[in-house]
Automatic annotation (TrEMBL):
<protein>
    <submittedName>
        <fullName>Uncharacterized protein</fullName>
    </submittedName>
</protein>
<keyword id="KW-0175">Coiled coil</keyword>
<dbReference type="Pfam" id="PF07534">
    <property type="entry name" value="TLD"/>
</dbReference>
<dbReference type="InterPro" id="IPR045068">
    <property type="entry name" value="BACURD1-3"/>
</dbReference>
<feature type="domain" description="BTB">
    <location>
        <begin position="103"/>
        <end position="173"/>
    </location>
</feature>
<feature type="coiled-coil region">
    <location>
        <begin position="69"/>
        <end position="96"/>
    </location>
</feature>
<feature type="domain" description="TLDc">
    <location>
        <begin position="284"/>
        <end position="463"/>
    </location>
</feature>
<dbReference type="InterPro" id="IPR011333">
    <property type="entry name" value="SKP1/BTB/POZ_sf"/>
</dbReference>
<feature type="compositionally biased region" description="Polar residues">
    <location>
        <begin position="227"/>
        <end position="254"/>
    </location>
</feature>
<dbReference type="GO" id="GO:0051260">
    <property type="term" value="P:protein homooligomerization"/>
</dbReference>
<dbReference type="InterPro" id="IPR006571">
    <property type="entry name" value="TLDc_dom"/>
</dbReference>
<dbReference type="Pfam" id="PF02214">
    <property type="entry name" value="BTB_2"/>
</dbReference>
<feature type="region of interest" description="Disordered">
    <location>
        <begin position="210"/>
        <end position="261"/>
    </location>
</feature>
<dbReference type="InterPro" id="IPR003131">
    <property type="entry name" value="T1-type_BTB"/>
</dbReference>
<dbReference type="InterPro" id="IPR000210">
    <property type="entry name" value="BTB/POZ_dom"/>
</dbReference>
Length: 463
């Protein structure tokens, strides 16, 4: 029994030891957990502080947002009250317009005087003219001797007024259409703006067609003719039969301006004999003195084939590169005469016909030269020949440029008219491929970037 009892006792003690050991393990695990939690308390406390700060910032932002919203509500209420007053004033003014529709309005637009009626100015629902008349017009104060002044282009306003009177738009010249579009936007005449945008989009599609189909562009202003041409500089006669649209000797639309070359003879009959041009017929840029110098620059051999005829004038045909190429391509030789927006007159000569078929295609021409006729430095008319080492790149063909003398690869063209000649996109990097015989550099022509007031291109008459 004892042994059994002792055996039982031993077993119990052994079990107790096991139980005690088990409780110690659980206690150690709980301590570890507690220690880990205790180590997290600073981080939890820090996060709590951060959350508290963000919450306070949120409350502040909410308060600011509430104040902003309240201010916006007050502003909206103010605007609504002002809009109500404006609507009332506009309604009252509409009634005044109806009652005074036939009253005259005397205007001075950029120095040009106009007389019209309230009805004419307001029938297009132009907000500009309504606000303008509401502010400026007074029956007793507005007279022929006391006109209301508008600081805009009076020449273009004449076209605006014609449109307001007739509702018709009869303008063939694309450059004038662009100018008129600018004024239509200023005067807020939506119907005129829409019509001009439509016409200009058609013009752009025509120009695109001209660039892709030079032989017979569908939008050309003149019918296509067959013309056989050869360069007088060719060593052998190798005529090329070209089908192209000629800007000359065509029947003109009834409401479009005649081509300057067609009016050359009548122009010559008006000018006194001592002031007439005998070579560059119809030019508005060349004086008889300049004509004499150009004849000297070109040389007596070439000048025996006179007179020269005008094939392109920017103010007549448009200031875009496509206009230049449409009128000037395939003609050789040509002389390009440029007038800047500040009055300088210069240009260049080449015996190579211009082309828009490839991009930046350099052409050799040992006879090419640049020249100045009128400049701010008071240098007399001077010729600048192409340098011998750069004769292979005397001119450069580019569909996005007009006359381009020198190569863009030679650190820039000496003279290049870029698209939209009447904007300051044209450039002078002279001297590069041409010789500066004055040592004055590009300043003898123009600023590095300049705008053209006029461009004329002439070629020899073939008879």
């Amino acid at each position: 029994m004892m042994s059994q009892t002792n055996g039982l006792t031993t077993a119990t003690i052994t079990n107790n030891k096991l139980n005690v050991n088990g409780n110690e393990a659980e206690w150690d695990n709980e301590c570890d957990v507690f220690n880990r939690l205790q180590s997290l308390i600073p981080a939890i406390k820090q996060n709590f502080i951060l959350i508290s700060q963000q919450y306070n910032q949120f409350l502040n932002d909410t308060d600011e947002l509430s104040k902003t919203f309240t201010a916006m509500q007050l502003k909206q209420e103010k605007l609504e009250r002002e809009l109500d007053f404006y609507r009332k004033d506009l309604n009252d003014f509409d009634k005044q317009i109806d009652s005074n529709a036939d009253n005259r309005v005397y205007l001075d637009v950029g120095g040009h005087h106009f007389t019209t009626t309230i009805k004419t100015l307001t029938q297009s629902n132009s907000l500009f003219f309504k606000a303008f008349l509401m502010k400026e017009w007074n029956r007793n104060a507005n007279t022929a001797d006391n006109r209301i002044f508008i600081d805009r282009d009076g020449r273009i306003f004449d076209l605006v007024l014609k449109y307001l009177r007739t509702g018709e738009l009869n303008i063939e010249d694309r450059a004038t259409r662009k100018e008129l579009l600018t004024e239509a936007k200023f005067y807020k005449i939506q119907s005129l703006e829409d019509e001009l945008n439509s016409l200009l989009r058609k013009d752009e599609s025509c120009l695109t067609a001209n660039l892709t189909n030079q032989s017979s562009p569908p939008c050309s202003p003149a019918p296509a003719i067959n013309r056989t041409r050869s360069s007088p500089y060719s060593s052998s006669a190798a005529p090329n039969t070209l089908t192209r649209s000629s800007p000359f000797n065509q029947s003109m639309p009834t409401k479009s301006k005649p081509h300057p070359a067609q009016t050359a003879l009548s122009w010559r009959t008006i000018i006194p004999s001592e002031n007439r041009l005998n070579i560059f017929l119809g030019s508005t840029l060349i004086t008889p003195e300049y004509e004499e110098k150009l004849s000297e620059f070109i040389g007596p051999e070439m000048m025996t084939q006179q007179p020269w005829k005008l094939i392109y004038r920017a103010s007549e045909h448009g200031f875009d590169a496509a206009d230049f190429h449409r009128c000037s391509e395939s003609y050789a030789p040509t002389i390009s005469i440029i007038q800047t927006d500040f009055g300088n007159i210069f240009g260049g000569f080449t015996s190579i016909s211009w082309s828009s078929a490839t991009l930046r295609a350099d052409q050799a021409d040992p006879t090419a030269f640049l020249f100045t006729l009128k400049n701010t430095l008071n240098v007399p008319p001077t010729k600048f020949p192409v340098a011998k080492e750069y004769q292979q790149c005397a001119i450069s063909h580019n569909p996005t440029c007009g006359p381009n003398f020198g190569s863009p690869k030679n650190e820039g063209s000496d003279l290049c008219l870029r698209n939209k000649f009447n904007e300051k996109t044209n450039c002078i990097f002279f001297p590069k491929s041409y010789v500066d015989t004055t040592n004055l550099g590009s300043s003898i022509f123009a600023k590095k970037y300049f705008a053209c007031k006029e461009v004329e291109v002439f070629t020899i008459t073939t008879q």
